[in-house]
From TrEMBL:
InterPro entries with a match to the protein in the record: AdhesinB, Bact_metal-bind_prot9, Lipoprotein_PsaA-like, ZnuA-like
Family the entry assigns: Belongs to the bacterial solute-binding protein 9 family.
Protein localization: Cell envelope
Protein name: Zinc ABC transporter substrate-binding protein
Keyword Transport: yes
PANTHER family: HIGH-AFFINITY ZINC UPTAKE SYSTEM PROTEIN ZNUA-RELATED, METAL-BINDING PROTEIN HI_0362-RELATED
Principal subcellular localization: other
Keywords recorded for this protein, A-Z: Metal-binding, Signal, Transport
Cross-referenced Gene3D superfamilies: Nitrogenase molybdenum iron protein domain
């Protein structure tokens, strides 16, 4: 009941704000996660008016739109979101807006579903954490270039040039990540985190990935989950486990305590960025900087 009431309230606010929309010289673009905001910024640059809904440390799985967010959405010419039910509480809002002729675009539509990792935790039946595959992010770059070019054809050349430049940066990023990971022996490539946000990373870079809470932070880890994973850590002689910037650290601390109580020492190797980038204005506040930081933190802690 609360879910449907939320949708009704948001829809009412959306229609109210829509009537107040004012003309703007620049094309208004709204994005959901900080990863998508960074990507669109690299393509659109100064030629669009870009507003992101979710900042550093914000969990998209649990995010609810505020009245201020609804105003941004109502005044958007185009909205880019992740899709695959990552933004769980916003999905129906976007569907409602789409039916009212607002252009809402899921960047996951750029990908072939056959290549995605399956998941029983999401209504889409797929793992939505697609940004941890650099190749996918390149496809998303091409996709957004095309969508912005269709919407603002007079800036097509600029968007294409910006997109091509960013693709080169992503190619360089992937090469750096591979070089760093190759310094870590394969048998030590076991990544244990708060929730399963890193499966695409694991598939891309040959890591075994285990998350305590499953794919969505909306699920809670129970005592049996902690005991089962602690036994796995001891069996595999895992040196370090990791907390996440957008997930409370108490579950990983409980896991560490469970492992240590059994005579096996495991450290917390650091905090990783999973569902959100770092603070704006820092290296980790960009997709490229976030990825470099994560891999460096993982490799250094597991060596």
């Amino acid at each position: 009941m609360k879910k449907y009431l939320y949708i009704i309230v948001i829809s009412f606010l959306f229609l109210s704000c829509k009537n107040e929309k004012k003309a703007n010289d620049k094309f208004n673009v709204v994005t959901t996660t900080s990863m998508i905001t960074d990507l669109v910024k690299n393509i659109g640059g100064e030629h669009i008016n870009l507003q992101g809904l979710m900042g550093s440390g914000v969990d998209p799985h649990l995010y609810k739109a505020s009245e201020g967010d609804v105003s941004k959405l109502a005044n958007a010419d185009i909205i880019f979101y992740n899709g695959l039910h990552l933004e769980g509480k916003l999905v129906e809002v976007f569907e409602k807006m789409h039916s009212q002729k607002t252009k809402t675009i899921a960047i996951s539509d750029a990908l072939d579903e056959k290549t995605l990792i399956g998941s029983e935790y999401f209504a889409s039946n797929y793992d939505p954490h697609i940004w941890f595959n650099v190749e996918y992010w390149m496809l998303a770059t091409h996709f957004i270039v095309n969508k912005l070019s269709e919407a603002v054809p007079e800036q097509k050349a600029t968007f294409e040039a910006n997109g091509a430049n960013y693709i080169k940066q992503l190619e360089a990023l992937k090469a750096k990540l591979i070089a760093t990971i190759e310094t870590l022996p394969e048998e030590k490539r076991i990544l244990v985190t708060a929730h399963d946000a890193f499966n695409y990373f694991g598939k891309s870079f040959n890591f075994e990935v285990v998350g305590l809470q499953g794919l969505s932070t909306a699920t809670e880890a129970g005592v049996q989950d902690v005991q089962k994973l602690s036994a796995f850590i001891i069996e595999k002689n895992v040196k370090a486990i990791f907390i996440e910037s957008s997930v409370p650290k108490r579950t990983i601390e409980a896991l560490q305590a469970a492992v240590n109580s059994k005579g096996h020492h495991v450290t917390i190797g650091g905090s990783l960025y999973s569902d959100a980038l770092g603070n704006a204005g820092t290296a980790e506040g960009t997709y490229i900087g976030m990825f470099q930081y994560n891999v460096k933190t993982i490799v250094n802690a597991l060596k």
